[in-house]
Amino acid sequence: MTSALSVKATRHIGEFDLDVAFTVESGISVLFGPSGAGKSLTLALIAGLLRPDTGAITINDQVVTDCARRLYVSTQDRRIGMVFQDGLLLPHRTVLDNVALAVRQASGRRARRAIARSWLEQVGAEALAERRPGSLSGGQRQRVALARGLAGDPALVLLDEPLSALDVAVRRELRALIRDVIISSGIPAVLVTHDIDEAEEIGDVVIGYDEGRVTGQRIVEHPRGPEPQGDAPEGAETS
Amino acid sequence: MMRGRDLAQPLDGRCRVLALAGTALAGVGLGYGAAHFFSDSIAYWGVVSVPFFITLRVVIPATLIAGVTGIASGYILAKGRFPGRDLLETIGSLPIILPPTVIGFYLLEVLSPGSEVGGLVTRVVGHVLVYNVAGCIIAATVAAFPFCMRAARSAIEGVDPSLEQAARAMGIPNWRVALQVTLPLARRGIASGLTIGCARALGEYGATLMVGGDINGKTRTLSLAILDSFTTPERNAMLLILVLLAIMAMTGVGLLGQTRS
Amino acid sequence: MTGLIPHSWLNWLRIPPWVWNPLSVSLHAALEATVVVAVLGIALGYALAKGRFPGRGAIETVFSLPMALPPTVVGYYLLTRMGGPGPIRNFEVHLFGHPLTFTFTGIVIAQIVESFPYCVRFSRAAISAVDPRFEQAARAMGMSRWKIPFLVTLPLARRGVVAGVAMAFGRAMGDFGATMIVSGSVPMATTMPIALYNAVLFGTHQQAMVLALVQVVVSLAILLGVSRLGKVRPW
Questions:
Q1: How far is C227 from chain B (nearest CA, A)?
Q2: Most buried by CB count within 10 Å: which residue of A47, B18, B88, B204?
Q3: What's this model's pTM, rounded to 2 decimal places?
Q4: Residues 6 or more apart in contact with residue C29 via CB below 8 angstroms
């Protein structure tokens, strides 16, 4: 059985002590817990922005971090996509350029832009293609950030509190969009949130976090959600 | 397989080795030069001490005056709410890139008893301000001032206003908030401005030449004396002292801002 | 050098040659110096802002020395290194056919050394101020580490970097001591600050006023531009 992601890692930062282990299949997994529980730190370890003190991480059955063997694949070579809380779109590039920069699977400006445009269509942001990030609303910005996170055909996409900077109405609208777009792409995803409604509405699996430890793992049923195209539907066999 | 690394170390090993080698090489070179120069310095101290003490008599008051006026004007620029602040700052910054000869020319216009404005200034002050140490101090102050002002403004604007509000809420009067909260919190930036200002005062050449008059034993600072000494044996001694003073100015004042916390 | 603008224009603009000749030398030399300073200064500013190698402080101090040393000392070093017998002079002769002291190129080199620290300090401050999470985001989408500075960091820091280059240009235009020593008083190498000095000593008060005013206007324009470019700066 292949796993989309397996994490077993410890890391000390000052007083804080992270010690977690979990495995997720395809679909959307949510790391849920109060702020300061170590969720975003876990994402940074998965992305290779930080190194764990001990442990190993595999993405799509490929070892990307193994402290015992001193193996650390660089962030660039991990084939991940990331969506940040405030988008972090490059302010000096157009929306289309921002997404096209993330496209890895095609060389050539024209091909990359075509792929980027199709992702913008999927998130309903094709009309924004020539705009600058500075002129976007918060919701538009996060749509584009989602497109950018997925456009590189990553083996795993990481979403770090993608909705927490938005107001409630926009947040509701985007929850459904995030789930639909990611599920229909078939790309496994890990999303971090401290909002239980968001966790249950978007996630297939909710992994509870508290004070640097995993407190439990729970499957969420999505009766009316769109069928995933990936090989493992909704992670149903992980019970 | 790629070597990953924490973001804290963006430069890889090769660069670090190169940088280490470069630093070591520079250190050896400096050490050799210093030893060579030092023996000369003792031998020619008698000749060199005269411009050295003139330099101190110019640079220390100049740095103090530029520091006080610079911090005050930086504070006004940072906290004031009046139009044209940026224009004022720009004009105050002119000496950074204005050729020293232009500064010297205008200072002579304003200070020289022979000119109209200068005659008036001389009568009001009751003292001639050109071709003496006062002229040198004024020239050095003008060179140092913009750095003190700009650094003070940036540093004061960087102070978290909620800390100042908290102090006001405790009933501390505004002038004490400025002296006891704002300025201490901004001290690192201010110190770095004073550092550069002091260094610029030390190296000031063109305006000092024109306003001070380059009079041997009276207004000839090290920066001016070095020019004549290029053909004489005390050259190395002067160079050593200047480089040492420059390094001290660049690092010493900066340390002031860091140690007290 | 005076060929930057046709003579008929000069007549029409009524710019007298005693203003235009030194101004064109200054502009020309400062432009050449600024190109070199921009490339080297931004690169060093980037290394100082991002690097975590030992001796960074020492490197910064050494390259800041031209700010603190009298320009005459800088000029003297350049004069003896470029003009005195030795490998550097041989190299110059090999490259240019003659030593560079008392030439236009000598002025450019003096200006490069004098203006370099300004570009380095501004670039460093601007690059340090870029939110590192933009660079993390770029890495997460697989951008190679050689592309990130050009596509992410420098564009985000561009205002401060441009301000640094403008300051360097202003400093290069304004250098007096180093230029004077390296160039002697070759007429081909009389820059604006030297022309003003000569005018104060030997010329008319009228000429000195005009030369000073032109330089004030140029400096003011540069500084206004720099202040419009934003708040990120070394002091």
A1: 7
A2: B204
A3: 0.79
A4: C104, C107, C108, C111, C172, C191
